[in-house]
TrEMBL record, chain A:
The keyword Glycoprotein does not apply. It comes from the Bacteria. It is found in: Cell membrane. This is ABC transporter permease. The chain crosses the membrane at residues 6-27, 39-57, 63-83, 95-114, 134-160, 191-210, 216-235, 242-262, 268-286. The keyword Metal-binding does not apply. Keywords: Cell membrane, Membrane, Transmembrane, Transmembrane helix. GO terms for cellular component: plasma membrane. GO terms for molecular function: transmembrane transporter activity. Pfam families: BPD_transp_2. It is a multi-pass membrane protein.
Automatic annotation (TrEMBL), chain B:
It comes from the Bacteria. Its main location: membrane. It is found in: Cell membrane. The chain crosses the membrane at residues 12-37, 57-82, 94-111, 117-140, 149-171, 202-220, 249-269, 275-294, 301-320, 332-350. It is a multi-pass membrane protein. This is ABC transporter permease. One of its GO terms (molecular function) is transmembrane transporter activity. Keywords: Cell membrane, Membrane, Transmembrane, Transmembrane helix. Pfam families: BPD_transp_2 (PF02653). CDD domains: TM_PBP1_transp_TpRbsC_like (cd06580). It comes from Neogemmobacter tilapiae.
Length: 308, 360
């Protein structure tokens, strides 16, 4: 039916392909749960992609590259945090500015790096496990960032739903006034959430430039940040559904490439449209009141200024 | 300890001072950025802001200015109406694409016939196409209370795949040697949108933009609908008591901004760009959001902001060829401009106070 596409390789490659959008979406989900809508994910991802690339080329160490990517994206997100949390600027506009600036600035930084090869990030050596039929391909053929991203899904789920920290974060996102009244530092909590989101976006960006592609070109993230934003909505702000959403989006991308390569008659445009249409449908289902529990954080996108 | 105190009424001085100070700050910060990258900052700034207007090639660049400002202004005015009413259309890029594709389809359906009515019909189709695309998030918001920011953004990507389908499929030029892209609408006399006065960049889209500036100003300052828009944005509860129907407001604002974005798209594809290709859109729909904010959501301000933003595009391209700056540098510049503007805007609504307010 699929014209000679091996389903197991497909699953393994969809897991790898969805790592960048999974990381970025997971981070953004936390940011939005704290009531902040940061549309600058694309900008933070590409800043991570370029700083990670530069540092890992300079040092020869992918690990240092990934750390630098997190730092680079966090530095960029500080501008957004300053604008929205201190200067009380509109979050939509600030996020868009962040994306624009990130795209431009990364291309200035990366000027001398076009065509350079970064050090390789190899698969984790599982020894004989990797040679197991089917399971070896799907479960034990990946690099450490992939496993880290999956572990982070669990961690974020646990922190959000099972710890006091998560409760406070959600309170800030649902009703900042009330959280402030209880004595929580709304702006500090939101700042930390923004930084966490940026770190994951930067990591996802660096995964594109260091592992997926791996080289540097202008605009290398190619809209992954926007897809991450779509996934957060699709997942109705829940970490486990973020994983499902990332696999769906990543899977459709991989399937689309495979179908194209296999010369199948299915028009790929419908496939590339599908995730966005599905997201809109999910949005409608959420909003039409079918499930109040699926609702967006109540204070999403609203700035908080303590007058007293 | 510094703290912010809300002003009883927004400051009129800062409303207009903020963009000017922001432009100056951007020049300084941009100069520092270029210096840090080892370029001569004065030369870079002169190339971007001075040469296109007064340099030896200015005769060419001045025409480009209106050409690039036209679509930005047209889209931004529609967006500004909605933003004033608290309706956030950020999918103008998609409405722009759909306007171009629908308009071009109608125009090319007549190929190679020659009739006077083909061009107006194509323009009308473009506006309707953009309007339809803008009405989708509007209807979903009215019917299901979905968030129009997210829906309009998702629709940009759907529009982009439709654009690819058009360029590679149903609009592909049958005589184009299998290259992606439609027939050239600017070389098909019945749909061409030529420069009206040679060397000025003035085409029908620019004329429309100027008319829309005037109409927008009249509506916002003199018409009841403009008053309702401002009321709905600044005091939604009062607006409801005054009989403003919020659902109708959403439909009108999103439909209108979609139609204007669609117009910008069809004027672009029948004029400067000529063909529907997969990368025909260059982000005017997103840049127009900056133009709307920089122009203070005011039609005349938007006109000035559109011209300034067009200048950064042209100067950026010029600097790319002359100084070896990457063409994306202009995006860094535009982003920075918006940063400064947003930061300075706080002084319009708040005043800075010294002394001990309770720390936040």
């Amino acid at each position: 039916m699929l014209g000679g596409i091996d389903p197991f390789i497909l699953i393994a490659s969809l897991i790898a392909a969805s790592v960048p959008i999974l990381l970025a979406a997971l981070g953004e989900a936390v940011v939005e749960r704290a009531g902040v809508l940061n549309l600058g994910v694309e900008g933070m991802m590409i800043m991570g992609a370029v700083t990670g690339f530069m540092v890992s080329v300079a040092t020869g160490s992918p690990l240092l590259g990934f750390l630098a990517a997190m730092a680079g994206a966090m530095a960029l997100s500080l501008i957004f945090a300053f604008l929205t949390q201190v200067m009380l600027a509109n979050q939509v506009a600030s996020g868009l500015a962040l994306t624009l600036f990130g795209l431009g600035f990364s291309s200035l930084l990366g000027q001398g790096y076009v065509g350079v090869k970064p050090p390789l990030t190899t698969a984790v050596p599982f020894g004989p496990l990797a040679d197991l039929p089917v399971i070896g391909e799907i479960l034990f053929s990946h690099d450490w960032i992939t496993y880290l991203s999956l572990a982070l899904v669990g961690l974020v789920w646990f922190v959000l739903n099972r710890t006091r920290t998560g409760l406070i974060l959600r309170a800030v996102g649902e009703n900042a006034e009330a959280a402030h009244g209880l004595g929580y530092k709304v702006r500090r909590i939101r700042l930390l959430a923004i930084l966490f989101g940026a770190a994951l976006a930067g990591l996802g960006g660096a995964y594109i430039s260091l592992v997926r592609v791996p080289q540097w070109t202008d605009g290398i993230t190619a809209g992954a940040g926007w897809i991450a934003l779509a996934i957060v909505v699709f997942a109705s702000w829940r970490p486990l559904r973020v994983l499902a959403g990332a696999w769906l989006f990543g899977g459709l991308t991989v399937l689309q490439l495979n179908l194209q390569a296999a010369g199948s008659g299915i028009p790929v445009e419908y496939l590339s449209m599908a995730p966005y249409l599905i997201t809109i449908i999910v949005l409608v289902l959420i909003s039409s009141g079918k499930g109040r529990a699926l609702d967006a954080p109540a204070a999403l996108g609203q700035n908080f200024h303590a007058s007293r | 300890m510094l703290r912010l105190e809300k002003r009883p009424a927004p400051s009129r001085f800062w409303l207009w001072a903020a963009p000017i100070v922001a432009v100056l700050c951007t020049m300084v910060a941009g100069g520092l950025m270029f210096a840090a990258l080892g370029k001569n900052p004065i030369e870079a700034l002169r190339t971007i802001f001075w040469e296109p207007l007064f340099g030896e090639l200015a005769w060419y660049f001045r025409g480009q200015l209106l050409l690039k400002a036209g679509p930005l202004v047209l889209i931004a005015i529609g967006l500004a109406m909605g933003y004033r009413a608290g309706i956030w259309n950020i999918g103008a890029e998609g409405q722009y694409i759909i306007g171009a594709v629908v308009g071009a389809s109608v125009g090319l359906a007549f190929y190679p016939a020659e009739h006077w009515f083909i061009f107006p019909l194509a323009i009308l189709a473009g506006a309707l196409g953009g309007m339809t695309w803008g009405l989708i998030p509007a209807i979903l918001r009215v019917k299901f209370r979905t968030n129009e920011i997210l829906v309009s953004l998702m629709l940009v990507y759907v529009a982009q795949t439709i654009l690819a389908m058009a360029a590679l499929g149903f609009l592909r030029n049958p005589e184009g040697n299998n290259f992606p892209g439609s027939r050239n609408l600017s070389q098909y006399p019945a749909t061409a949108n030529p420069e009206l006065i040679s060397g000025t960049g003035l085409h029908w889209g620019v004329v429309t933009a100027l008319i829309v500036v005037l109409l927008g100003w009249l509506i916002l300052s003199r018409h009841r609908f403009g008053f309702e828009i401002r009321l709905a944005g600044q005091a939604p509860r009062a607006a409801r008591f005054a009989g403003v129907n919020p659902d109708r407001m959403v439909l009108i604002c999103l439909g209108l901004s979609g139609a204007l974005a669609g117009l910008a798209g069809i004027f672009e594809v029948t004029g400067p760009s000529g063909i529907i290709s997969p990368d025909f859109n260059v982000g005017y729909g997103f840049t127009a959001i900056i133009v709307a904010f920089l122009g203070r959501l005011h039609p005349v301000g938007i006109l000035l902001a559109g011209l300034l933003m067009a200048l950064t595009y042209i100067g950026g391209e010029y600097a790319a060829t002359n100084l070896g700056l990457p063409s994306a540098a202009v995006q860094a510049f535009q982003g920075m401009l918006l940063f400064f503007l947003l930061a300075l805007d706080v002084f319009g609504n708040y005043r800075l106070r010294f002394g001990s307010g309770r720390a936040v």
